[in-house]
Amino acid sequence: MYHYLWLISMFICVKAASREPIVRTNFGPIRGKWMNSNRGLLIAAYLGVPYAQPPIGKFRFKSPQPWQQHWINVHNAIEDGPKCPQLDENMKMVGDEDCLNLNIFVPQISDKRKLPVLVYVHGGSFVTGSNNSTLLAPNYLLDQEIILVTVNYRLGIFGFLSSGNEASPGNYGLKDVIEALVWIQANIEDFGGNTSLVTLAGHSAGAAIVHHLALTNRTENLFDKIITHSGSANAPWAIHTAKYSKIRYITIAIELGCTTNRKIMEVDDPSSDLSKNDQESIVQDDMEILKCLRKKNPEDIVKMLSYFYLWRDSPYINFGPVVEPPAEDAVIIKHPMVTIENEEFRDIPWISGVTADEGYIKSLNLILDAELRDEFKDAFDEIITIVLEQEEIIGHHKEYAHQLIQFYFPDFDDLAYDQQSFVNNITMMFGDALFNYWSFEALSRQSSAMNSSAFFFKFTYDGTFSATFSSGLTRNFGITHGDDINYIFPIYNNMYEDLELNNTLNDITMINIMTEMWGNFMKTGIPSAQLSPHWQPYQEDFRFMKLGMGRSPDISMENDFLPMRMEFWNNLMTSVGAPRDTLFPEVIDDNEDGEEAVNQILMNATNLPNSVKSFLLDIKIIFTL
């Protein structure tokens, strides 16, 4: 009898799954496709769903416009939408400007309760990446009975071009994510989602975006919790000044034939000596530049990204979030740490964390390339702020380089590259400079003023798959930037499937622990799992969760995150960092040292066209205005 009942129930499930899922929305019906979770839960996937008007033509370099089109017939959402324009590994443009779309994954559960929603913002240094459904697949997370939404947003020049004034204030990529969140609030109930339980999460640049959006009241009622993996809004690569952005804006305009007027390099600074008429004239000139740039082929604009590399591919992040002039739709009007210190952030539950060996993302190429190592060592003083993406914030370049050498490489002149100490120390330096210190600083300062709980983790599990495979290695070199995300999404499993590797039992255990923790955090604000100890908030004696112990998925609570290294960076930023307590902070506070540093940077700018190098030499004085 029970055998027949089981067969009947299976027949009903198969028959139901054979019909494509259709959901009715405010814009008409949408057809998706079926997928399965790791444990066999049926998932309805709706791919490439538009949430805003295409940002093309007159909408290029503008805030996103809400999606308004209604479908008379069923809209097919069974394939990924286009990724946003970006350069591939061959420096060719891929993607399409009509890229503002969502992938929505809904588990099929037996009851009708509204499910928590995770909105995920991909990383990629603000210049690359997408919501690719193969890499950001739902098969791990949706066993927690949550809805997953992954977001495409404008990248690079299209997403972050800023003139330093109202002509093009920038941050379009951030505003895209806000528009996606507005769309989700208006429509996710049609998919079975709970609009009161929306968690915003991201990795790397995506994490910085998430943190930025949690620091502005513009996102009130759009999400109620955040998760940030290896990224924060206060990292130097995650926040640019208007002066820095203006240089890139005008360089692009000149190179693409949209201006010859170099006087408009001035930034529209309310505290400057420019008259009101002068400022208005600059804005008008910038608007004329924008009209010209809106007519340019996207390929020509995207290829400008590589023009700003000063040493090899550094600085890599030339276009990203920027301090905007105050306006109704402005997202960032002051430095994130000023917002935190003024306690103007949204007080909501927060998980933040980093991996054990973040720095391999930068150090691995040096470790594997002897010629590159020699070049790096010989030019250390001149290029280190560029390589560490900190050229905007350092006031005394020589002293900065000296202190880094003293702390990480006390035997710098006699460095033995083949020794493990070099591998460890250069990886630590990159990791601390790019991710560790800034995540630590943001969480430490912000959590002390929060009523909500903040949770910190250090991912130390050495699993089968790793981002270090991207360097051509066929083995896991370390627990690097992005390795933790592989236990939330099967990114590297699918990216490197030709290696014919499979998850081990320990990998599966870590997947189950992390997805359960994240799922429970979405539901309750507490990251808990059956196989983990109680996760104490960071506010309780600076406690953090250590996720994994080498090859073992064991986890434990610890105190004090990298105390000596974090103290070093705190002192370093106090002694050589430029001030950040004004809307347009000074980049260089020592004229003689600053001019020399700028000259050295320009001398090493081997990838810039001569016309641009000449132009930058002419306007280098902007750094000391």
Automatic annotation (TrEMBL):
Pfam families assigned: COesterase
Top-rank EC class of the record's enzyme: hydrolase
Signal peptide start and end residues: 1-16
Domain Carboxylesterase type B residue range list: 20-569
Keyword set, alphabetical order: Disulfide bond, Glycoprotein, Hydrolase, Serine esterase, Signal
Keyword Glycoprotein found: yes
PROSITE patterns, per database record: CARBOXYLESTERASE_B_1, LIPASE_GDXG_HIS
Family: Belongs to the type-B carboxylesterase/lipase family. Belongs to the 'GDXG' lipolytic enzyme family.
Protein name listed in UniProt: Carboxylic ester hydrolase
